[in-house]
Amino acid sequence: MARRAFIQRAGAGTALAVFGGIYTIADDGLMATARAARRPDGRPRLPPGQKLLKDLKPMGGQAGDPSRAAWRLKVHGEVQKPVELDLRALLKLPNVEQELDVHCVTGWSVFGAPWRGVRLSTIAELAKVKGAAKHVIFEAAHGYTANVRLDEALEPSVMIAHRLRGRPLAQQHGAPVRGVVPDLYFWKSAKWITGVKFVRRDDPGFWEVRGYNNHADPWLEERYA
Ligand SMILES: Nc1nc2c(c(=O)[nH]1)N[C@H]1C(S)=C(S)[C@@H](COP(=O)(O)O)O[C@H]1N2
Ligand SMILES: [Mo]
After folding, report:
1. pLDDT at 26 over 60
2. What are the structural domain ranges in the chain?
3. Which residue's alpha carbon is at the smallest distance from atom 1 of ligand 1?
4. Lowest mean pLDDT among 34-43, 112-121, 156-165, 196-205
5. Is 102 a pocket residue for ligand 1 (Cβ < 6 Å)?
6. 140 lines ligand 1 (CB under 6 A)
7. pLDDT score at 30
8. From the alpha carbon of 185, which atom of ligand 1 is closest?
9. Under a CB-based contact definition with an 8 Å cutoff, are residues 162 and 90 in contact?
10. Considering only CA atoms, which residue is closest to atom 10 of ligand 1?
């Protein structure tokens, strides 16, 4: 198809796709557009003090076992039905693909990357979380943990994700499976996830005991304790 015909047929979607492909922190015009964007809840789409990147920056961490066959997710704590899911079981649950924005405390954000996986709320229903539970501890390889308030962890945007942009997660981004908690700073999104523990009492995680904020709301710039 000729390019012009394609553009006419594709209409406004093409402009958005092209726009989405050329985000760069160097372009002041696009940064201004990003800064003007609003979320449905009225908050600015780009939290204060953040710059837009086109793609996730690999931020390191002690990687877990990338084997899809060996992966297990232990769902435990204040639940009536503790479960251990392998990847096949995760894929059999209702999976969703959601375009989410993420915000790293080091000052970069990525808009609208499509993540695929299972909502944490689906897993909470499966395990029958008890009313006593008030917090979720995301557990990962080598003892990494991240704590999130239960009400925030049950938001529909919070996922146990195994694909990004239509591909299996890259090893450096948490393969085979990671947590995604998009509305809190990205350290709450545990890569190489191994467990989800529902607890009564809060239990500050890896970064939270190293000077980072226990709650981590990017719009309130809750960066440090
Ligand atoms: N298991 C584990 N998960 C982790 C980390 C880590 O060190 N280990 N780092 C966190 C931090 S500080 C950030 S900013 C994001 C970075 O994710 P990315 O490397 O995919 O960009 O992962 C988070 N999840
Ligand atoms: Mo980070």
Report:
1. no
2. 2-220
3. 191
4. 34-43
5. no
6. yes
7. 78
8. 14
9. yes
10. 187
